Amino acid sequence: MNTSILLATTARILTQFRHDRRTVALMVLMPSLLLILLRFVFNSDQAFSRAAPALLAVFPFAIMFIVTSITTLRERTTATLERLMTMPMGKLDLLFGYALAFGIVALVQVLVAVGISLTWLGLEIGGSVWLLVVIAGLDALLGTALGLFASAFARTEFQAVQFMPLFVMPQVLLCGLFAPREAMTPVLEWLSNVMPLSYAVDALTAVTKSSDITGELVRNLAIVAACGLLALVLGAVTLRRRTP
Amino acid sequence: MTSSAAVEVTGLRVSRGKRLVLRDVSCTIPRGSVTGLLGPSGCGKTTLMRSVVGVQIVESGEVTVLGVPAGSPGLRNRIGYATQNPAVYADLSVAENLRYFCAVLRAPRSDVRRVIDEVGLGGHESQLVSSLSGGELSRTSLAVALLGKPELLVLDEPTVGLDPLLRDELWTLFRELADRGVTLLISSHVMDEAARCERLLLMRDGVLLADDTPAALLSETGTSDLEQAFLSLVRAKEAA
User: Fold this and answer.
1) Which of A19, A83, A86 is facing B92, going by the closest CB pair?
2) Which of A34, A110, A165, B168 is geometrically suited to a Cys-Cys bond with A136, CB 3.0 to 4.6 A?
3) Residue B38 lies in a domain
4) Does B100 map to a domain?
């Protein structure tokens, strides 16, 4: 790993964003707009407070997944990746450079969504606001890492878009948002146990309920972080210097 | 392996998909020369170049570049490579692209200015790549290959779509680089560029028809221009 190449890559991606203001606006505001919509759909503070923590995990996760998978696919399908692979660029430098750039965008996205939820939308939480931001941010990073990984299996942007229902929707359905995970049939419960989003939602729910930092909370966060890291490393394996 | 050869290819076979793209190609590219790789579209020029740069999975054969196997990590800042499709970021400006690749190569920042002047893109520095013309775009991609101090430049059709004046300027630049000791492998499908090279590799259907100097090719085939020489080689091959 070479830090200066990694940071140059992050700076390059952020510069690309700077030239595309509409995408930045969409990324930063989209989860907040969806949460605002949801608040008025529920039309009650209590119902919103119950569902919002899970959605603070789901929306940034889904949006970062799709943005990242398309952007990296673009890198893979244009000749720029091939050029970078002929240069002294480490695969992990490239992927962590991507993760850092998208992580920064994800953090802004989560800060805006949490800020609006707590002030305007009447979300009440028992635990630390900062821990809430950290978990939601970590979750957006997980979406980024999975998006990087998934882009390896798409040949076209059209395919990449359709990976979103494949990678994201099952996790959303099984994360405990629609039905408690314990009440699912054994097969579904097992599936929900191997999906990282479930742990992010558990952690967020725990933080909104109480201010205690329990062993379970720490374990859940560690699982989310480990899954993100694993997806990044797997993503590096799918990058090839030599291609057919 | 001789130290005077920049690139040495022996018995190279490459398949892409089900198609055998290179069948037993062998050639030597001397250091400090301009070697033209010519042949019709689809004959395997790009595949040969990818093999030299080390991004092509090869079936068999050996490719030695600057004394080490192609694709060795140590070669990564000694080779400049410009692909046929411009490999630059469309949503960055010319200078932003060059600054990024400069950082990846750990080349001095002053290189950005130098290569912009070398390819004649002065005045376009802050223009977004997506708004450039085709010729400007391919020159931006060429500029990236010139960053740092590459000892070998592999350029895939660098002069396509350029006006004659610019083309002439680029060939003068290639000549200067070779005089400084840089080895250049340049592909083209237009024969009139062949005369500007010291050595020519003529390819057709994944087979190397000739590896010689332009003058030797002309005298060997008894023709007066390289287009005719190429045709006569193809016919001789088919008759055999």
Assistant:
1) A19
2) A110
3) yes
4) no
Domain range for B67: 1-78+153-161+187-239
> Rounded distance, CA A180 to CA B29, Å?
68
The verdict on a CB contact (< 8 Å) between A87 and B77 is yes
Mean pLDDT of B144-170: 91
Domain range spanning residue A104?
3-238
Domain assignment of residue B85, yes or no: no
- Please state the rounded mean pLDDT for residues B17-39: 93
pLDDT tens digits, residue range A92-120?
999 899 889 988 988 898 899 989 998 99
Q: Which residues pair with A243 in a beta bridge?
A: B56
Split into its structural domains, chain B has a count of: 1
**Complete edge-to-edge strand list for the sheet that includes strand B5-16:** B19-30, B5-16, B60-65, B68-69
Number of domains observed in the structure of chain A = 1
**Could you give the strand order of the β-sheet that contains B183-188, starting from the edge strand earlier in sequence?**
B79-82, B152-155, B183-188, B34-38, B199-204, B207-212
CB atoms under 10 Å from CB of A194, counted, come to 9
Q: Which residues in chain A have their CB less than 8 angstroms from residue B103's CB?
A: 4-5, 8
Do residues B28 and B183 touch, judged by C-beta distance below 8 A?
no
Contact (CB<8Å) A86/B76: yes
